[in-house]
């Protein structure tokens, strides 16, 4: 079995974009370097992953970059990572693969180009719009295909029953319409959105802050197993990696970048979902917000997003609203909100005026109706039969009145007598 350095040397000598050394180089980077660093991504993009890894391991890379690797420079766990991935049915997807979601992640490539050259002025690593160097993926779906028509649904972990109901409904309705729901697999809104999509027998994608073989939270082991059966578990970190706190903030940019828009269902004033919404806005993606009760602390963040005029967030209340915002122009339009139908809806202006002129209790003559409605008696006589057929007015024997509502059936008990 060849060593990493031998594979790298062999890959550097050839031009095969599918050489095992290339994949092994990106696997090494995924474990040795925390993602989100602008300078390191630029270094790998400029030299290529094979040469970049060779220089990082040999000490030929700039000191600032070697310090990011530290003691990991001489370590190599790539073969063990591939074995762990094989055991759980995962694979490494790299930019050289056909499955790589080029179109979606191109927004990160454009955004990182605007980062200044001076490291001191660059965005913090947890917020920097840096494209991933590789992605560990577990599940049968193709990453590029599932990301093509996808929407992120995010929100608070400490969600309310209202928020979980809305998230599940959105997940289910989006799944029914052929859209992929992307979220972070956390408690609360994330889990509700995933379960809603699964209930519609639609694939869903969970972007994790740990290895795809390590369910976190542990209580979601069964949920992640179901997601991996039809959808995808995605992570920048190799199998076995722990869910460290800073990694949750780093992965938010992926949730925003892989999708056409981000829906925030519930978010407190300091919710991590707000960070995902900001990342989506920075990448030119739609930011969609579900409003909540003004008395709910779990919706304070949502309302602040809607109040931010520069953010340009849109209020949504259904999957149809979401698709209308992120779908194709002219192909994914939302239907108008249904409104209760009434027999009055089809009445002409004259018929409406005559009906409004009819008293509730006593019947009056057509002449009286004409005087109140402001029209001729002949016009009243012309519309009264149609109103009677619609069961809106009735003849009392002495005049016309509004048809009274049907009486409720009597209970058969005398008032005040308990059963």
UniProtKB/TrEMBL annotation:
Residues 399-419 are annotated as: Disordered. GO terms for biological process: DNA-mediated transformation. InterPro entries: DprA, DrpA_SLOG. It comes from the Bacteria. Residues 127-325 form the Smf/DprA SLOG domain. Pfam families: DNA_processg_A (PF02481). Belongs to the DprA/Smf family. This is DNA processing protein. It comes from Blastococcus aurantiacus.
């Amino acid at each position: 079995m060849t060593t990493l350095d031998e594979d790298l040397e062999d890959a550097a000598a050839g031009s095969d974009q599918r050489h095992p050394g290339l994949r092994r180089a990106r696997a090494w980077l995924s474990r040795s370097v925390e993602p989100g660093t602008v300078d390191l991504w630029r270094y790998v993009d400029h030299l290529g992953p094979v040469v970049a890894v060779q220089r990082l391991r040999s000490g030929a890379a700039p000191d600032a970059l070697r310090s990011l690797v530290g003691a990991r420079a001489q370590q190599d766990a790539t073969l063990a990572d591939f074995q762990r991935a094989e055991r759980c049915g995962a694979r490494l997807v790299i930019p050289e693969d056909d499955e790589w979601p080029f179109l979606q992640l191109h927004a990160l490539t454009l955004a990182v180009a605007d980062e200044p050259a001076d490291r001191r002025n660059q965005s913090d690593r947890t917020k920097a719009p840096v494209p991933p160097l590789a992605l560990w993926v577990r599940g049968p779906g193709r990453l590029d295909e599932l990301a093509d028509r996808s929407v992120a649904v995010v929100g608070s972990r400490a969600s309310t029953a209202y928020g979980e109901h809305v998230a599940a409904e959105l997940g289910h309705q989006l799944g029914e319409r052929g859209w992929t729901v992307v979220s972070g697999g956390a408690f609360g809104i994330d889990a509700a959105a995933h379960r809603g999509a699964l209930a519609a027998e639609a694939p869903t994608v969970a972007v994790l802050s740990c290895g795809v073989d390590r369910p976190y939270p542990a209580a979601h082991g069964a949920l992640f197993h179901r997601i991996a059966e039809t959808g995808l578990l995605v992570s920048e970190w190799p199998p076995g990696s722990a869910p460290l706190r800073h990694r949750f903030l780093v992965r938010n940019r992926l949730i925003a970048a892989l999708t056409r828009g981000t829906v925030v269902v519930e978010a407190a004033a300091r919710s991590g979902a707000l960070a995902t919404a900001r990342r989506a806005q920075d990448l030119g993606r739609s930011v969609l917000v579900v409003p909540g009760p003004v008395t709910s602390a779990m919706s304070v963040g949502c309302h602040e997003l809607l109040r931010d005029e520069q953010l340009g967030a849109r209020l949504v209340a259904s999957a149809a609203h979401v698709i209308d915002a992120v779908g194709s122009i002219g192909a994914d339009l939302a239907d108008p909100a249904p409104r209760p139908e009434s027999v009055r809806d089809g009445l002409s202006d004259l018929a409406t005026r005559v009906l409004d002129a009819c008293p509730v209790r006593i019947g009056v003559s057509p002449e009286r109706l004409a005087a109140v409605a402001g029209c001729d008696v002949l016009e009243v006589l012309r519309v009264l039969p149609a109103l009677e057929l619609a069961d809106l007015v009735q003849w009392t024997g002495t005049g016309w009145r509004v048809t009274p509502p049907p009486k409720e059936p009597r209970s058969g008990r005398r008032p005040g007598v308990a059963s």
